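ARCHIVE RECORD
Type: protein–small molecule complex
Small molecule: flavin-adenine dinucleotide
Source of inputs: curated submission
Record status: active
Notes field left blank by submitter.
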Amino acid sequence: MPCEVKPRFVLLYGSQKGQAESLAEGIAEVAEEHGLAAELSCLNHNEKYNLETENAPVVFIVSTTGDGEPPDNALQFVKRIKEKTLSPDHYKHLCYALLALGDTNYANFCNCGKTIERRLQELGAKQFYATGYADDGTGLEVVVEPWIEGLWKAIKGALSKMASNKAAFVKGLAADSPRGAPDSTMPDVQLNLLRITDQQSRESIKAPVSKSAAAASPPAPGTHAAVSDLRPAVPTGSSVLASRSPGASAVSASAPETPGTDDGRPRVSPPASLTRSLPPLSESSLNLPALPPPYLDVSLQEADPAGEAVGPSNVEALSAAPVCRAVQLTTGDSVKTALLVELDVSAHPMVTYHPGDSFDVFCPNRAAEVEEALHRLGLSDQRNHRVHVSLLKDTKKKGAQVPSYMSQNISLLYLLTWCLEIRSVPKKALLRALVEHTGHSGQRRRLQELCSRQGSADYNLYVRDCGLSVPELLAAFPTCSPPLSLLLEHLPKLQPRPYSAASSCLRHPGKLRFVFSVVEFPACSWRPAGRRGLCTGWLFDLINPVLLSPGEDESSVSPAPPKIHVSLRPNRSFRPPSEPSAPFIMVGPGTGVAPFIGFLQQREQQRKDDAEAVFGETWLFFGCRHRDGDFLFREELEGFVSSGTLSQLKVCFSRDDHEEEEAGASSARPRYVQHNLLLASRPVTDILLRRGGYLYVCGDAKNMAKDVNNALMEMIQTELQVDQLEAMKTLAALREEKRYLQDIWG
Ligand code: FAD
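STRUCTURE (tokenized, with ligand):
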């Protein structure tokens, strides 16, 4: 078999939830098709790469988490390159490209990528390809796909430039050297050609579907039929699937198409949906992503279910805190149900928190969905078998590893319940992999469309934006029967959900309160009404037996308190000002008010403890739908005003008292927090711009935080008489000084 030496490049990722990691893996998979060898590594595994001496191009794929922080597995790297002792030419030998992932719904968009890039440049590294900033808020693929497409040419360009620079250098040395030989300390250009691999055959994929609805039996995993109509190679390393036969008008994954009704009138075509496409997509040739190579070998072994672990996988590191109080904060007819939970953390000294901190709640997948998954996998009878996971011999996946959370001594039931986010939104790589395990030709074609470049809009509409889960996808594509190993390869780790502390330890020693609203997903054709968010639905069911209605007496409920596994997530910046005299403004509609209850409880206690101290003004902007339905913490907030702890409470109701507005009256009442901010523009800007004050925003990232930001821009423009750019700079400076802080989610 012919051997080929491929030039190498280094591919480093930093990933919190696996997106950057899976993109990096995807790039590594197809590198060979582009005649390159990728050396893939996580940024934290610095024993696997050495940037100090690296002479091949380096590609970084990094995401951002929290309030602009690096992902956990990039933290050490970022810390290292931030060392002040590094000289400005530390990385002058380095050639890099960077793809930053972020979400414009959050502050500090792509901050980790920007930080790495800034430091690389400060340390002398040269960029060989323009940085991509991909936005999860609008769809990562909008930037990611063209960026990857252009990457290959850029790497080759960088390699040949490096080679010719080095050749010129060597030539110069040869001319200078009395013996005419290159300096042996100079790294050899050939160092870039370390890998010797077999000629890789291009992935072959199935032929396009016919209109027939006949279900074929699914192919054996990993086998591929030869393609009948492949176009010439495509630049991304993906495959091109031929269009359907001319004249075809739609592809339905569920039923055969019939050309007309019995009486000869043409049938009206149903609209496009998750399982059905319309022209032009249904007639289009498709560029498919490369088939992700399998890499896990999974076997099941009969075992005694006794002694099986219960609770989250890292249970030793968590605190199991009993619920000592649970109250419904909203009335029964409210659109969203908000609940307050009080935990007894007195037995857990590590849960010592400060106002502004949040903590992670560890919840399991829903039992019914786990059952459904077991049934779908045909493994219901093996639920108590131990799962043995190892790396598949000869896997083609670069840098393949058995995920650390799949420990060897757990049952299948435990794995599906506590370890995997079985509800995660399927990524395109998973859709691509599922094609190979789908019997019905129409369903295969639809899955191909959804992961193809041409089907991007459909993917966004029917998969991403509506939060389609993997079980929902499998329900919609009934002939898709993936093996367990494939799901283990593609489903991410089940993540804990963070909640902001809504209390202060000073007021409630040994107690931790939080507030959440129950997420409800709207019904649609593949999702019945009543599906709740995973954690909020679980919490709701858990606390329901001990739940008090507003005003209800605690003594009336006395079942054994349920326990919740939590761990603290300290927030170093979202804290009340350290100097008590600094004025501060809090903007927290809905459950976004939670941390501010903690801020105000702490302030109230401090005022009691030190009557002589000078305390700055405090403002709170709160908003909800109805004064009588979901005005959370109303009594407590009004109490803070009466005691002087809260200087100004500005509340608005988006669905109350707006008749005059609807009738066109000119003096409309404020509906949303940003309207009240605009009405208080003078004192708010005074606090922020002249009195060294602070502004905190907490709650919904998708709309509220942006609207508040826009209102602040408008206020600064008016107050300082500056243009939009100047106002943006002023806000950026406030962020930089940590006087404009956000704790937002969505
Ligand atoms: P999931 O099952 O995870 O579902 C939520 C997901 O579904 C989200 O990605 C959302 O975008 C998506 N989604 C929701 N509705 C729809 C829809 N109609 N169509 C399509 N997709 C949809 N929450 C609080 O209530 N109180 C808090 O104090 C709080 N503090 C937080 C602090 C931090 C630092 C962070 C990051 C988040 C905080 N959250 C808080 C949010 C919380 O962590 C959870 O995300 C939230 O409770 C939902 O969890 P879940 O498991 O029930 O929902």
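CURATOR ANNOTATION: The pocket of flavin-adenine dinucleotide is lined by residues 358, 423, 466-467, 497-500, 514-517, 519, 521-522, 533-536, 591, 594, 743, 745-746 (CB under 6 Å).
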